[in-house]
Structures are given as C-alpha cells and as structure tokens.
Amino acid sequence: MSKRDYYELLGVSRDASPEEIKKAYRTKAKELHPDRNSDNPDAEAQFKEVNEAYDVLKDADRKAAYDRFGHAAFEGGMGGGPRPGGGGFQGQGDFASAFSDVFDDLFGDFMGGGRGGGRQRATRGSDLRYNLRVTLEEAYNGLQKTINVPTSVACDACNGTGAEGGSEPVTCPTCSGIGKVRAQQGFFTVERTCPTCHGMGQIIKNPCKSCQGHGRIEKERALSVNIPAGVETGTRIRLAGEGEAGMRGGPPGDLYIFIEVAQHPIFEREGMHLHCHVPVSMTAAALGGDIEVPTIDGGRSRVKIPAGSQAGRQMRLRGKGMPGLRGGGHGDMYIELAVETPVNLTGRQKELLKEFEKLSEENNPESTNFFSKVKSFWEGMKG
C-alpha cells in the first residue's frame, strides 16, 4: 500500500512556512488523538501517519530530501537517511518529544492552561464566614456592631513577601519559574506541580522569621459592621477585602457575615409581618372589651375585642411589623386571641358556671350546629 503525501496528510501546500506546518500538525494531532476517538479504530494509525509527516517536514534537511525524492528519500539511504527506530515513523522517544508540542493544546484546560499556567506567585486569600446572632429588636432597628474575627493578615515584618530583610523571592531552579515539572511516561508527557516551590514558581532563600516565609500571620481583628434594619435569618452581608490575607502579597479574600435572628418571647416573625398570641378570659371574649398589646418598637397599642370573639380570631395592626430590608415600608402585626379556660375553680364558681350553662343553650351556635350534624350522621348510619 502506497503512502499518502505528507503535505496532503497535514493539509498544507508545499511552500508552507514552518509555522504553518506546525499549526496544521497541532490541529490534526488534536483531531486524531486516540483518546478522543475511542469509537474510531483507524484513529491510532492516522495519528501515527500525521506524526510521521510532521517529523519529516519540521526538519529543513529532511524536508528538502522529501521534496526532491518523495518517500524514496528514506527507504534506501537516499537524502537524509532513515531515522532511528526504523522506517519513516519516529521511535518512541522521538514521538514523545514531538507530541509534547501539542501537549498544552490537548490538556491545557485540565493542567492549568499550558506552559507556565500553573505558576502562582501570589494567590488570593480565602473567603471567611462569620455567624452573627442578633435580637429581633436589633433586626427591627438595625445597628452598628463590632466583631472580632480571627484570620490571617499580611506580615508587617516582610510586607507580605515572606522574605527576611526586604529581600525578594528568587526563581525556582527546579521548574525555572513555571510552577510545574514534566515527566516522560511512554508516549505521554505528564505534568505535575513542582515539588520544590509547590507551584509558586519562586522560592525564598531567607524566609521571614515572623511568618516563616508564608507572608502572613494569624491575628484577631476588630471590625465594625453595619447591620441594616430588616435583616432576617439567612441574610448575608459581604465585606470585600476583609477575608484572609493572600499568599506572598496576593489580594485578600472577602468576609461573609451570616445573620441569625434569635427567637422572641412575645413575637413570631413571618417575613415582614409579626404575630402576637394574646390570652383573654372567657368573659372578656364573650363580653368584648379593650386590651393593651406591646409593639416591636417598644410602644403600646390598644386593641378592641368584639363581643363573642372565638379562639384564634385575628386582628391586624397596620404598619406595626418589620421594616423591609431594601425599603418598601413596614409589614403588619397580627393579634391572635387565645381564649383561656379557667382552672382550679372554687365550689361557688362551679355552681355559677353550671347555672350559666343552663341559661346559655341558645348562645352557642357553633356547638348547636355541630351536634345537629352529628345527630344526622348517626341516624343515617342506622338507616
């Protein structure tokens, strides 16, 4: 079977420049790589043909011999002669060397973006979380609060560089500042984080005694935080640049404050609305009257109870709820009646209640209606 023309394999013309040939090779190598064509049984053979073509055309002398004699230049001692490994296809070591030209293009997304992509001279500090518990009154009014945050801050002794006496970090001799090293494994070149500089690309010969070369130290900071009115449990406040200091002069992270509003002994919150359960006596619910209830702003409101009120009845006080976090006025406050049954009755009280019950047979419409339905239900079951 005759070999295909090398220029045709790469898809370039005979007068193509070395840059054009290399670009065409990279495109073809990525397209035909066996790892990307597991469903194509011919991919590996085509991939080898492309590498064979590039191995010849990238070398000026071998390219000239091929242009003059074609494939015959490497089959009988003509032209540039055969390459080690037999035939026109390069041996394993040469192939791995050629394949490293496209290593970054094939795996750059997974290994940090290609040559030099793994270098991390200065890294951003981590974000921090602080849980802050406030009362319902504080959530209603808003407040300015000072918190103490344990975190890492830039070392003052070395100005965050990690080097003693104002000296500068030097380029890592192992990876030449790239932050990664490569090792040959068969046909493949594997890239790993440099063990000497741990991916930083630089090393510190004379580390700072205060921070041991890290460029930051542990310290507790006092921060003043503005808690706006209307916050509720789950509200998150971001303080830009107040997180952990970056490594070796890198930018700091952010501080996120998560709000938790404590339960209140009187009020229950539902968004912008408040609920208040108020116990009332049987006589007050039956006769009606006025009661005085507290409000979250510290004030008092007088509420009129209609005569004959039942347990669970609600009355609304407009604008007496919580403020909106981003404006929009206030919610409402709902008063819910809890009719209380008296306990520990005296003998005289029991007599009066029994007498009252006899006189109240026509004053309990809900009970009368319910037991009428029960009587009809039982009669229907008998039928």
UniProtKB/TrEMBL annotation:
User: Per its record, how is this protein called by name?
Assistant: Chaperone protein DnaJ
Subcellular locations according to the entry: Cytoplasm
Give the residues the record marks as binding Zn(2+) 2.
172, 175, 194, 197
Name the encoding gene, please. dnaJ
Q: Which of UniProt's keywords are assigned here?
A: Chaperone, Cytoplasm, DNA replication, Metal-binding, Repeat, Stress response, Zinc, Zinc-finger
Q: Name one Pfam family in it.
A: DnaJ_C
What the protein does? Answer: Participates actively in the response to hyperosmotic and heat shock by preventing the aggregation of stress-denatured proteins and by disaggregating proteins, also in an autonomous, DnaK-independent fashion. Unfolded proteins bind initially to DnaJ; upon interaction with the DnaJ-bound protein, DnaK hydrolyzes its bound ATP, resulting in the formation of a stable complex. GrpE releases ADP from DnaK; ATP binding to DnaK triggers the release of the substrate protein, thus completing the reaction cycle.
Please name the SMART domains in this protein's record: DnaJ (SM00271)
Q: State the domain notes.
A: The J domain is necessary and sufficient to stimulate DnaK ATPase activity. Zinc center 1 plays an important role in the autonomous, DnaK-independent chaperone activity of DnaJ. Zinc center 2 is essential for interaction with DnaK and for DnaJ activity.
The cofactors required by this protein are: Zn(2+)
